[in-house]
Amino acid sequence: MAKDILINWQKKSGERQKIYKQYLHRADKNTVLKQLPVLHEEAFSKVDCLQCANCCKNYSPRFKTPDIKRISKYLKMRESDFIEAYLKVDDEGDYVAKSLPCPFLGVDNYCSIYDQRPSDCQRFPYTDEDIIIKRQSLTLKNSTFCPITYYVVEKLIEAEKGK
Q1: Are 77 and 40 in a shared domain?
Q2: What percent of the chain has pLDDT over 90?
Q3: Which domain holds residue 155?
Q4: What's the pTM value of the predicted model, to 2 decimals?
Q5: For the residues of 63-119, what is the DSSP string, one character each?
Q6: What are all long-range contacts of 85-88, with beta carbons under 8 Å and residues at least 24 apart?
Q7: How many structural domains is the chain composed of?
């Protein structure tokens, strides 16, 4: 049953955005937060990120100052050269990747800077954090391209119905 939930997940997510929005708007934060650790682990046990990499192919994390310092040092580049080579400033004033897919994503879907990756990448898809409730528009967007977010939101709704 659990694997079935992921069949045609992108189509289902698109069709269920209104339901997700309503659920996230009314969800009890404490109830959700209690469920997240288990659902997060469960989702990661069912989805192989290396088979997907939608996040790296279609979106850029924010590269915050500590990320830029750490990654440029790792790449043995001056910070200004790293920024010039790989980053641009987005509409919100954040540094993001200049190009998509992410310049650090290999053809095998492995990240060439994985151990040094931006904190946004380390935390993505935020399915074990209160961000899932606090930043509902982000959760809705993530559910359209990340099967893990989709899975967690579906399971949260399923658990609420089972009460």
Answers
A1: no
A2: 93
A3: 4-55+125-161
A4: 0.91
A5: --HHHHHHHHHHTT--HHHHHHHHEEE-TTS-EEESSSS-TTB-TTS-BTTGGG--H
A6: 87/63
A7: 2
